[in-house]
Amino acid sequence: MRVSLLVSALVAALAFAVPAVARSGQAAVPPGTFRSWKPGDGRVAWISGGVRIAIEPAPCAKPPQTEGCRYDPENNQPLVTVRAPGLPVYRALGDDQSSFYRVAVVRFERGDARPGVVIENQSGGSAGNVREQLLIPRGRAFRQVWLPGELQGELPRRLRDLSGDGRIDFVLGDGRFAFAFGCNACTPRPAVVLTVRHGRAIDVSRAPAYAAVFRRDLPLFRRRCFDRQEGYRNGSCAAYVATAARLGRYAAAWRQMLRHYNRKGIDLWQDCTVPPAQWGRDGCPAGKHTHYATFPQSLAAFLRKTGYIR
Q1: Considering only CA atoms, which of 53, 55, 43 is closest in space to residue 21?
Q2: Which residue in 81, 127, 153, 260 could disulfide with 54, CB within 3.0 to 4.6 Å?
Q3: Residue 35, exposed/middle/buried by CB under 10 A (0-12, 13-18, 19+)?
């Protein structure tokens, strides 16, 4: 009789010890860790850091109709539903031009009373364009912002504070380098570092606290730039000089680039002399391009245009 009572008590205690997540049938994902999703997965739900996340294809019944709605069985645009304790249910639509998505629950800043959400919208393709959508807690609601810039690549599976200031940091590639000095695969992307301060998403690539990010990439870019067996090395030379500029080593890197770049390279970035508001359907109007004659001329203008040098 005593054994039976003891077993019953143990079972009851274990029932209370099992997390509510398990009893509800929803998976648990550690805070700051991405969960991947694609439209073919249908509706998926999980809990992370006390926040309930659900993601599913957005209904196709209402315009605008995306490509997924027109050509595939389901919408490629996701609908993300966030249920955070003490807050009204929040719903956000992801990017309608992407194909793959990742979602993470994270505290953006040390002082945040509640977690926020990162939605990574990946377009796929050779360029690897990505849009980072942030749901930042403010009062009794969320505010939606996007990381600035033309970004490419993918965030690591787990987001971290790289500088030690209590803020989550985002490291991606600078998509402005795509096709600028040759084929897409010929030009590495220098890193871009972004973070959230006081609810605003900002570029902090120039901050000395993130120098380790650029020191990590510099040797690879330098090696590829100096490789005379590589005919399309000028894209690597562009990434090398840009990354060195982030570390305050622009002058030395420029001198080395002048000794190693491919003088026969014909892929030169050309600027447009009129603002985008005056562009036509095919981009910059005919006759409105610059005409840089050499790679160093083109690269210097490009680095000034993109803010790497002044």
Answers
A1: 53
A2: 81
A3: middle
Tokens for 265, please give them. Answer: 């390279």
Asked whether 254 and 242 are in contact (CB, 8 A), the reply is no
Q: Please choose, from the candidates 144, 174, 172, the residue with its C-alpha nearest in 3D space to the C-alpha of residue 159.
A: 172
Single-letter residue type at 138: R
Q: Which of 170, 166, 21 is nearest to 102 (CA)?
A: 170
Percentage of the chain surpassing pLDDT 70?
89
φ/ψ of residue 266, rounded to 5: -105, -5
How far apart (Å, rounded) are the C-alpha atoms in residues 261 and 278? Answer: 34
For the entire predicted model, the pTM comes to 0.86
Closest Cα partner for 130 from 157, 148, 108, 112? 148
Asked if residues 46 and 17 have their Cβ atoms less than 8 Å apart, the reply is no
Question: What are the distances in angstroms from CA 95 to CA 36, 66, 120, 228?
Answer: 15, 10, 9, 41
Neighbours of 58 (CB within 10 A): 22
- pLDDT single digits (tens) 132-176: 999 999 888 899 999 999 999 999 999 999 999 999 999 999 999
**Residue-wise pLDDT tens digits, 258-280:** 999 999 988 999 999 999 889 98
3-class SS of residue 31: coil
Contact by Cβ (8 Å): 233, 187: no
CA distance 252 to 45: 52
CA 98: distance to chain centroid? 13
Q: How many Cβ atoms sit within 10 Å of the Cβ of residue 114?
A: 18
- Please report, for the chain, how many H helices and E strands are present, in that order: 7, 14
**Distance between CA 113 and CA 291 in Å, rounded?**
53
Q: Residue 135 in contact with residue 92, Cβ under 8 Å?
A: yes
* Helix ranges (DSSP H) in 78-141: none
**Pair of tokens at residue 103:** 């979602």
pLDDT digits (tens, 9 = 90+) for 186-220: 899 999 999 999 999 999 999 999 999 999 999 99
C-alpha span between 293 and 279 (Å, rounded): 23
